[in-house]
Design goal:
single chain; 22 helices
C-alpha cells in the first residue's frame, strides 16, 4: 500500500490566518495509538496519603513507594538525571519487580526523545511525520539499555503470568513496558506497524487488568487512548497496521481518560495530557486549553507543559495570545534554574511560526535563526529553522541571505529531510504561494 502523508504541511494562507491544520492532529492520534501503557504521575505528600487509603488495593504497591514518587517529581520538571538516579535505586532494590524496569525505561526513553527535539508537537503539526526520512541518531549505549530494560521486564512479566494468570499488577506492568517501547520505535525508528501491534497487545493487557479489577483506574488510560485513536483512523490505515476488527469510540475513549485522570494513581497527568491532545484533534480548543493550562499552572517548571499551552493557543488561532505565552516561557528560561533542561530552540521556533502567521516576517526570520543557533539544537530542527528563515528572507527581498540559509539547510551530512526543499528554493525564490 502506498504511503500517505497524514501530516499535511501548513500552507501559507493557513499560516497567515493562524488556523491549525485539523489533519495534523491525526498524526498525534496515530502516535498516541502506540502510547498505550505510558503511565506515570508523582503525587504530593498529602495526596499520596489519601491514595494509600482509597486506592492502594487497585495499584501496584511499588507505585506508592517514596523513592518512586520522588522519581516522578523530578520527571515532571524534566530533571531526567535526577529521575534516572532514583529509578536506578528502585531497580537495584527490586530487581525482580517488572515495574522497576518500566520506571527506568520511561525515563531513558523520554530523556532521549526530549534531547532529540521529538517532544515538541509542532513536529507533528508541520512535518510529514509518517513518511519522514528523518534519521534519529540514538547512541548505541542508550539503544542497548532500552532493549535490555524492555526485554528483561517483559520476560519477568511473562514468567509471572504463567505462574499466576490473575496477577493484575503484572499485566499492567507488561502493558506499561510494551507501550513505552512502542513510543520509542514509533518516534525514533518509524516502525509504525510493529509499534501499532505492540500497542494493541498493551491494550489487551490493560483490558485484562480491568477484567480482574474494574476499579484499577490506571488501566483505563490505555483502553481510552485506543478507543479514541482507532475511532479516528481511516479504514485503510487500520488495514496497513493490521488492526482491522479493533473497535473504537471517541466519546467512550474520552470518558475512560477522564476516569483515569480523576481516579488513577499513576496516570493522572498523562490522562490529562492525552485529553488535551485528543480534544485539540477534534477542534475542541477551549476544552483542550483548559486541560493544558491546568497542567502548566500545576507544573510551572515543566518546560514542555508551558510550551504546549503556547502551541495550543497558536493552533486555536489566537496568534497574539500565543506570542505572549512563548515570550513568557523564554523570559522564564532566562531565570537561572527555573527550568531543569530547557530546549530553548522549541520556544524560538514556535514563536517564529506564530509571528509568521501574523505576517511579522522580520521578527519571524530573526527568531527562526535564534532557534537554529541554540547549541543543543538537533540537526533536524536546526536545518528546518534555517529553511524557514530563508523563506522569510526571500519575502523580505534579501535573496543572498536566503540562499545562504538554503545552502545550510541542504548541506551534506546529518539530517537531510529539508535538503530537497532547500535546493528547490535555491533555484526559485520563495514567494509565499
Amino acid at each position: 500500500m502506498r504511503s500517505v502523508d497524514f501530516c499535511v504541511a501548513v500552507n501559507d494562507s493557513q499560516r497567515r490566518s493562524g488556523r491549525s491544520v485539523r489533519s495534523a492532529g491525526l498524526v498525534l492520534v496515530v502516535g498516541l495509538l502506540m502510547l498505550v501503557g505510558v503511565d506515570a504521575q508523582a503525587r504530593a505528600a498529602t495526596a499520596a496519603a489519601q491514595t494509600k487509603v482509597d486506592t492502594a488495593q487497585h495499584t501496584n504497591p511499588l507505585n506508592l513507594d517514596p523513592i518512586v514518587r520522588e522519581l516522578y517529581e523530578h520527571f515532571y520538571i524534566l530533571d531526567f538525571d535526577g529521575s534516572l538516579s532514583r529509578s536506578e535505586v528502585v531497580l537495584k532494590e527490586h530487581p525482580q519487580e517488572p515495574m522497576a524496569y518500566g520506571y527506568e525505561l520511561m525515563v531513558t526513553v523520554f530523556r532521549e526523545l526530549y534531547h532529540q527535539d521529538l517532544l515538541d508537537t509542532t513536529y507533528y503539526a508541520h512535518d510529514s511525520f509518517l513518511t519522514s526520512k528523518r534519521n534519529v541518531p540514538v547512541p548505541d549505549t542508550t539503544r542497548q539499555r532500552i532493549e535490555f530494560l524492555t526485554n528483561t521486564g517483559i520476560k519477568l512479566c511473562d514468567d509471572r503470568i504463567r505462574a499466576n494468570p490473575n496477577d493484575k499488577n503484572t499485566y499492567f506492568a507488561r502493558g506499561y513496558i510494551r507501550g513505552m517501547h512502542a513510543v520509542f520505535i514509533t518516534l525514533v525508528d518509524h516502525s509504525y506497524v510493529a509499534a501499532a501491534r505492540q500497542g494493541y497487545a498493551a491494550r489487551g493487557d490493560s483490558e485484562q487488568v480491568l477484567k480482574l479489577d474494574p476499579e484499577y483506574a490506571d488501566a483505563k488510560m490505555a483502553v481510552g487512548i485506543q478507543q479514541f485513536a482507532v475511532a479516528s483512523l481511516p479504514h485503510w490505515v487500520r488495514m496497513m497496521v493490521g488492526i482491522m476488527g479493533v473497535g473504537g469510540n471517541k466519546e467512550r475513549g474520552l470518558a475512560l481518560l477522564r476516569e483515569s485522570a480523576e481516579h488513577g494513581v499513576v496516570t493522572k497527568v498523562e490522562s490529562r495530557t492525552v485529553l488535551s491532545l485528543f480534544l485539540r484533534h477534534d477542534g475542541r480548543y477551549p476544552e483542550a486549553l483548559a486541560e493544558q493550562h491546568g497542567l502548566a499552572v500545576e507544573y510551572p517548571h515543566n518546560y514542555l507543559f508551558r510550551l504546549e499551552e503556547a502551541n495550543l493557543t497558536k493552533d486555536e488561532g489566537n496568534g497574539p495570545g500565543a506570542i505572549a505565552l512563548y515570550k513568557a516561557v523564554l523570559a522564564d528560561v532566562a531565570r537561572p534554574g527555573y527550568y531543569a533542561d530547557p530546549r530553548v530552540q522549541m520556544a524560538w521556533f514556535g514563536l517564529a511560526d506564530t509571528q509568521r502567521g501574523q505576517n511579522d516576517i522580520a521578527d519571524a526570520a530573526e527568531n527562526y535563526l535564534k532557534a537554529a543557533d541554540q547549541p543543543n539544537c538537533s540537526d533536524w530542527l536546526r536545518k528546518r529553522a534555517q529553511l524557514n528563515a530563508g523563506e522569510m528572507y526571500d519575502l523580505l527581498q534579501q535573496r543572498a541571505k536566503a540562499v545562504g540559509l538554503y545552502q545550510m539547510a541542504s548541506s551534506g551530512g546529518g539530517d537531510q529531510t529539508q535538503a530537497e526543499s532547500a535546493r528547490r528554493l535555491m533555484k526559485t525564490p520563495y514567494t509565499g504561494k
